[in-house]
Amino acid sequence: MLRIVDGRSGEPVELDPGRRAPLRVLAHTGAVGGTTALRVLLVADVLARTAESYGGQVLVAVVGPADPALDAAASALGIGPAAARGDSAGEAEEALAGRARVHVAATGTETGGPRLDVGTAHPDEAPAGPAVRLALLGLDRRAPAELSPRALEAADARLGQWRRAVARWAESPSKPMCAEYVERLQAALAADLDTAAYLAALDRLAAETALPDGSRFETFAHADRVLALELTREVGGVRP
Questions:
Q1: Which residues contact 155 (CB under 8 A, 6 or more apart)?
Q2: Domain boundaries, the chain
Q3: What's the average pLDDT block by block, 10 residues per block, for the chain (240 residues)?
Q4: pTM of the predicted model over 0.85
Q5: Has domain 149-227 been given CATH number 1.20.120?
């Protein structure tokens, strides 16, 4: 079971990940636009990937006008396409053939039902790419995000280190995933979608040199189902 903190009431809410019926999610982008809207879509994408890792089915609809530039930026961040779109929550729910169980929206947005609050993000037109995704995932989703050149450089460096490490570990015999770290990763997402804690757990795992490389590889590859950072992209490539 996933647990989120409802941005409207401040109370914890348990969400079925969509095993019994699809988990319907509305991502509200119309009132904010720019990088904040992109961040809303990213949080909805991580929620969907998390629920799917539990074996659930998730349907995400965007509430807001069509925005080809936003759609292109979302695709560049590895955000899956929405199942539907509507100018209002009612239209989006009608397109999903059911009521939304959770809303994802910028803090203060008026919505019905439990809401995952998302902080603002700047600049309004941020560069696209996996470093942007990683930089945003490294923050509390409610905190304002400033995608400065320095922040993006740090995220790009972190991503490069992980990809090189994963490629190196892939050369060792495969081993079962590290159960302790899998539990830490699951606990981070199950507790209010804490992606910052998720990434911190992976940093600790990368530093655990006593663990078999094959185990670290399998655990990172598993974690990337939610992160969508193409952590295995350099596996099999030529390394100096």
A1: 131, 132, 134, 135, 138
A2: 2-146, 149-227
A3: 91 92 95 90 97 94 94 93 95 96 94 94 85 96 94 96 96 95 95 96 95 97 96 77
A4: yes
A5: yes
